[in-house]
Design brief:
The protein is α/β, with parallel strands linked by helices. The protein folds into two domains: 149 residues, Rossmann fold, CATH 3.40.50.1000; 90 residues, Hypothetical Protein, Haloacid Dehalogenase-like Hydrolase, Chain: A, domain 2 (2-Layer Sandwich), CATH 3.30.1240.20. It is built from eight helices and eleven strands. The chain has a seven-stranded mixed β-sheet, sandwiched between helices. A four-stranded antiparallel β-sheet has the order 6-7-9-8, with helices on one face. It is globular and about 50 Å long.
Length: 251
């Protein structure tokens, strides 16, 4: 990471627990990193979720924010800071595409024998405009419940495999603690980072990636073929903190 011009991070389970606020320690580490590097955060989260979970808890100066780039919904959109957050691009799904995805989820639930939870917290399949996201217990489920629902991705592996058969022309990936994300074909974290690097004029070797879902089928794994050096933080947020502390304060 020492030679990287930009460091990109996943959000959930990497910088913060699933849909939980960025904590004070991580905020401090990121602000320190923004003083010496450009930083990108790419996630399946919507921009509204970025604002609530990440930006409202990031205590950096406006000058530091000019080094920060946000890529919601797995790179289907890009935001940069120029006195405020400006959308550089976004690839919204059409009404017809959304309906096709909703229908595919219902079909796959029946095919795989998936039983919807008796209590759904929020929305089971959420429309994020550029992406549809399934959350196994609902979009607003408590973290304590989410952590025990599918820690080894066994439930989501089955659903995701079935969805890929039903949805040619779309990208299906696993992320967060309970999520499956569906975007247009070719729109994934590799797409988002490629667009960002092109915008900045950087080569893949000039970037570095940190994520918890770099396993096959995970929504971080698409960055590996780009040739971007990476760190797999299998232990989640605590591993990311240790990695950043070592980089920032061990010289």
């Amino acid at each position: 990471m020492e030679n990287a011009k930009i460091v990109a991070f996943d959000l959930d389970q990497t910088l913060a627990e699933s849909k939980m606020p960025l904590d004070t320690e991580m905020s401090g580490l990121l602000c320190a990193l923004l003083a010496v590097k450009k930083v990108a955060v790419i996630s399946g989260a919507s921009f509204a979720q970025f604002q609530k979970q990440f930006l409202e808890n990031l205590s950096c100066s406006a000058g530091a924010l000019e080094n920060l780039y946000l890529l919601p919904t797995n790179g289907a959109s890009l935001y940069k800071y120029t006195g405020g957050w400006v959308c550089v691009y976004e690839h919204n799904l059409t009404t017809e595409e959304k309906q096709k995805i909703f229908d595919a989820f219902e079909k796959v639930f029946a095919q795989t024998g998936f039983i919807k939870p008796e209590k759904i917290y929020g929305t089971l399949v959420e429309d994020r405009e550029t992406q549809l996201t399934f959350s196994g217990l609902g979009s607003d489920a408590p973290l304590a419940l989410k952590e025990g629902w599918d820690p080894r991705h066994e439930k989501r592996d089955v659903l995701a495999a079935a969805l890929r058969k039903e949805l040619p022309g779309f990208t299906v990936s696993i992320g967060g603690a309970t999520s499956i994300d569906v975007t247009r074909e070719g729109i994934d974290k590799a797409f988002g980072l490629t667009e960002l690097l092109r915008t900045l004029g950087y080569m893949p070797k000039e970037a570095f990636y940190v994520g918890d879902a770099l396993f096959p089928g995970g929504n971080d794994a698409s960055v590996i073929p780009l040739g971007i050096p990476y760190k797999y933080v299998e232990g989640g947020v605590k591993d990311t903190k240790a990695f950043l502390r070592a980089f920032l304060f061990t010289k």
